[in-house]
Here is the input.
Amino acid sequence: MPLCTFPKYLDTAGYRGSEIWNASFQQSHSEFKELTGPQISRQLVALLQAWLYYDLLESVVEKKIEVSYLMRPDIDSNGYLYSRNLHFALQMKVFELRANPGRKPLASIEIQLNLGLAHDWVSRFVAWSHPSFRPKLDEEYPGFMEQLETVVPAVIRLAEAIEQMRLYAVPEEPTLGTLTWRTPYPVASRRRSGLKRLGWCAFQIKLLEDTVNQSTIDWLVACDMKQDPLGHETCAAKPCARNDINESTYQQAHICQDGRCEKILPNVHKVMAILKENQIPVIHLEVSNGQPRLVISASSKTEPGDYIATSHVWADGLGGATESGLVECQIRRLSEMCSAVNQTSSTVRYWVDCLCIPRSDRDVYIHALIAIRDVYLNATFVLVLDKTIVECTMSTSTEDLYAHIYLSAWMQRM
Here is the structure.
C-alpha cells in the first residue's frame, strides 16, 4: 500500500469499511465472494493489522514504514509485531515537531483524530468479542476473532505510545478528549488469570484496570511482577481483605526468628503530656546492659525538627497504640533503618503512629490525629515502610521502583 491518510486506508485498499463495521465481511470486498470463511478471516485480520498498526504509525510519522522494521519471526517462522524500534520512529516525530513548531497545532489535532478513529474500531472489536455476539462471528468466519485478539493488544499499546509521544512533544496543545482503551473480553480474562497466578487479588486487579493504561498492565504481566498472596484469600473486587483491618483481632508482625519477643511500651503519660503541650512526641531506642527502653522527647510543631517520621500500613504488622507498645524486633528494625537514613546524628529520633498516638484519652487521640500533618511537615526525613516497596534495592530500575510504589498497600490507601 502506498502512504495514505489513515481514514482513507480502507477505501484506498478497495474495501468497504461500512460492511466490515457491520460484520458483513463477505460483502466488504469483491474478491471475498469466492472465498471461504476461514480465508476471509485471515485476509481481513491481516488488513486490519496493516491499517490499525502500520498505517496508524505512518500517519503519525508521515513516512512509509517497512514491514520488517516492526516485525520479527518466532521459532516457527511466524511473524509477530516487534516494538523495539517503535521508540525511534516516534522520537523522529518529536524531533520534527521541535524543528517546525508552527506545525504543532495541526499535527496534534490530526494525531488525536486518528487515534479517535482507531479507538472506535477497537471498541467495535471488543463488542464483537462479547459472549452474546462472538458465537455468530465464529460460525460465519472461523478463526477471525481468535486471530484478531492477537492483534488488538498491540494496536492498543501503539495507540497509547503515540498519545504519550504527543503529550511529550506538544504539551502546550489542547487534548480533545481522553480515550479509555479496553481489550477484548477473552484477552482481559486471560490476563486476569495471569495476574492471579502471580499472586494478585481481585481488588488489586480491579485497581489496575481502573487506574492504569493497558500497556502498563501488559508490562506487569510480561515482567512476572508478583504480589504476596498472603491475606488476600477472600478479597473481592472492591474490599481488599488484607487491607481491611479488624482491630479486635489484629496482631503485630514479628520479624525475629522465634516470633516471641516482648512488646516495649513508651511512657504513655509523657507522650500524652507532650501532645497536650501542642508538641510532637518522638522516640529513640536506648539499650543499657542489654535492656532496651524507649526514650520520649518533644519536638516543635511550628519549626523543622530533628527526627524521622515513618509511614506504613497496619496490614504490614506495625499497627497499634501507645498503650500497647510495639514488639521489640520491630522497634530494633525501625531504629536501625532510621539510623541508616540519618547518619549525621548520634541519637536518631523517630515518630511512628503506633507509639506516638495514644487511644485511652479521646481528646488527646483526636489532637494527635490532627497533628499528623505537622509531624510529616516538620520531619527531617520521611521513611515509608511497605513490604512491597522494600523489595526494591539501589539497583532497581526506575520503572520497577515506580511499579512497586504504585502497587503497594501503602499507596492503595491514598
